[in-house]
Amino acid sequence: MTAPATRKLGSTDVEISEFGFGGAPLGELFVPVPESQAQQTLDAAWQGGIRYFDTAPFYGYGKSEHRIGHFLRQQPREEFVLSTKVGRVLSPTRDPATFDKGFWVGGLPFDFVYDYSYDGIMRSWEDSLQRLGLPSVDLLLIHDLDSFFWETETRLTAYEQQLRASGWRALEELKRDGRIRAIGAGINRSTAIPRLLDLVDLDFFIVAMPYTLLDQGVLDDEFPRCQARDVGIVIGSPFASGILVTGPVQGARYAYDIASEEILQKTRDIEAVCTRHSVPLPCAAIHFALAHPSVAAIIPGAFQAEHVQQNLAAHTQAVPADLWAELKAEGLLREDAPTP
Questions:
Q1: Which residue, 5, 45, 6, 9, is CA-closest to 25?
Q2: At how many degrees (to 10) do helices 305-316 and 35-47 cross?
Q3: Of these residues, 52, 54, 61, 159, which one is catalytic?
Q4: 52, 61, 63, 85: which one is catalytic?
Q5: Which end of the chain is more exposed for a tag (fewer CB within 10 A), N or C?
């Protein structure tokens, strides 16, 4: 299997493999993942040529970082690019019996507090290095500073101001001193892009949901703003939380939730076009996400080696131009959406 090509990340000097590895599933987001299976999954990614790995303290409350660090410590440091995130500081829970796992079905018994201050970001970065067992990460991202996690505008604004007044100094210091190579933001909702671009001088975004075969609303404003400033984009969920892999089956997930009938029907229509052109739905999803000129990489998650191998195979499969033309003609894809 041909190793994924590399692409430049925005205006930085960082080159990342255009097909990367998203570490959220190894924190046991939807299903438990045995340790041996997690390591086999990471090994399949490495053997397939993947050299960009992304994780975060939030993913299983440290579990994803532990697992990815265990694997990457055994690889030559100069051969991979690693990103993690700041904004949450972990501490051991006082009562494991009543510990609320939140999103995660597994993970570790650690509570967290949000902290985008100078001290909070420095502690989060140092804690991540210890969990990873590595002396450095390449890319550091402000995590989840968007309305997906905040019920009130007041709280979101307060944390934005905490970042601007205090935490941003920590990130600039780490980059200036060469301890990280680029600063990003991991976001879920597209509205965070202009807010953060107006707030701080970012190098790139990891966009968790807003740009897939099913949704291209960011082409109106958010992605053009990134292009104008040469801010790179990494697509965190090219399969839209799963439905663009599983297809429109009962219980399919979209945007971290069970897909609505409207999304199921749109997926059926897209899948029908793909079938007419003998292209698997995941293959079309991968190639579409990588076609935008600002996109440096996609980082689909996986918790089985077979998933990685199947995704890499889809990445190498050709997609005929007529497929994109038909999707646009049927109104299933925006006319202005970049395609391969």
A1: 45
A2: 20
A3: 54
A4: 85
A5: N
The two three-digit tokens of residue 293, written as one number: 């000129």
pLDDT at 151 over 80: no
* C-alpha–C-alpha distance, residues 86 and 195, integer Å: 18
What pairing do the DSSP bridges indicate for beta strands 295-298 and 232-235? parallel
Could you give the CA distance from residue 291 to residue 298 in angstroms, rounded to a whole number? 11
Amino acid (one-letter) located at 117: S
Residue 5 DSSP class: P
- Give Cα separations from 108 to 39, 97, 184, 259 (angstroms): 17, 12, 26, 28
Domains of the chain (ranges, CATH numbers): 7-329 (3.20.20.100)
54 is catalytic: yes
Residues 6+ apart with CB under 8 A from 319: 277, 279, 283, 284, 287, 340
Identify the H or E element spanning 139.
strand 139-143
Give residue-wise pLDDT tens across range 7-62. 999 999 999 999 999 999 999 988 999 999 999 999 999 999 999 999 999 999 99
Averaged confidence pLDDT in the chain: 96
pLDDT in tens, 290-330: 999 999 999 999 999 999 999 999 999 999 999 999 999 99
Residue 114 annotated as catalytic:
no
- Tokens describing residue 6: 């590399």
Residues 6+ apart with CB under 8 A from 325: none
For 305, the enclosing helix (H) or strand (E) is helix 305-316
Give the distance from CA 65 to its chain's centroid: 14
> In whole angstroms, what is the distance from residue 202 CA to residue 302 CA?
28
For residue 52, indicate whether it is catalytic. no
- Kindly report the pTM of this predicted structure: 0.96
Burial class of residue 253 in the structure, from the number of CB atoms within 10 Å of its CB (0-12 exposed, 13-18 middle, 19+ buried): middle
Render pLDDT for 268-298 as a digit per residue (tens, 0 to 9): 999 999 999 999 999 999 999 999 999 999 9
